[in-house]
Amino acid sequence: MSDEERIEDVFPALHLENQLCFSLYRLSRTVTQSYTPLLKPLDITYPQYLVLLVLWENEEEGLSSMTVSQLTEALQLDTGTVTPLLKRMEAKGILGRQRDSKDERVVLVQLTDHGRGLRELAKPIPAKLLCQAEMEPSELLDLQGMLRALLKKINP
């Protein structure tokens, strides 16, 4: 009997609950939804929070701006998804966008003072989410490590 046949005996392959993708999908949706009440006081959405995380980290590294291409690469999203998001954030006064003076095809994104100020308000969010999950920090680190390893194996 092959390994595949033995696995099929224990976990019927075409049952929804046995699909790794479904478990990850449900977890992703649940975690994302858990951020909603935490982000509401900041008046930002989860995707906007992700953009801010990248821009805050960029500033920690001493850089005042980044290109839309760098941002899309960091978020692993396409320009068609990120551009409307950036426009909404710009309308809220969170960030600014401008064309690069050396190459007008390149759009630079930088935080405004308001966007920088949101960082302080957002600092407690990871700890609050960890408390909701009732996980120890070491458990979270282990889970992140396993997910990164799985991602690396699936998408080298």
Task: Write structural notes for this entry.
The protein has 156 residues and is mainly alpha-helical. 65% of the residues lie in helices and 8% in strands. It has 8 helices and 3 strands. It has helices at 3-10, 20-39, 46-60, 68-75, 79-91, 113-122, 125-133, 137-154, and strands at residues 66-67, 95-99, 107-111. A 3-stranded antiparallel beta sheet has the order 1-3-2. Helix 2 (20-39) crosses helix 7. The longest helix has 20 residues, at 20-39. The model has no long low-confidence stretch (mean pLDDT 91).
Protein traits:
3 strands; three-stranded antiparallel sheet; 156 residues; mainly alpha; 65% helix
Short overview:
Helix 2 (20-39) crosses helix 7. Helix content is 65%, strand content 8%.
Question: What is this structure's SSE topology?
Answer:
Blueprint: H1 3-10, H2 20-39, H3 46-60, E1 66-67, H4 68-75, H5 79-91, E2 95-99, E3 107-111, H6 113-122, H7 125-133, H8 137-154
Antiparallel strand pairs: 1-3, 2-3
Helix pairs in contact: 2-7
Percent helix range: 55-70%
- Write the element-wise H/E pattern from the N-terminal end onward: HHHEHHEEHHH
pLDDT below 50 for ≥5 consecutive residues: which ranges?
none
Which structural class is indicated by helix and strand composition? mainly alpha
What kind of sheet is the major sheet?
Answer: 3 strands, antiparallel
- The first-to-last residue Cα distance is 31 Å
Radius of gyration: 20 Å
For the largest beta sheet, what order do the strands appear in spatially?
1-3-2
Q: How many individual β-strands?
A: 3
Task: Tell me, briefly, the overall form.
Answer: globular
Measured by DSSP, the beta-strand proportion falls in 5-15%
Instruction: Please count the helical segments.
Output: 8
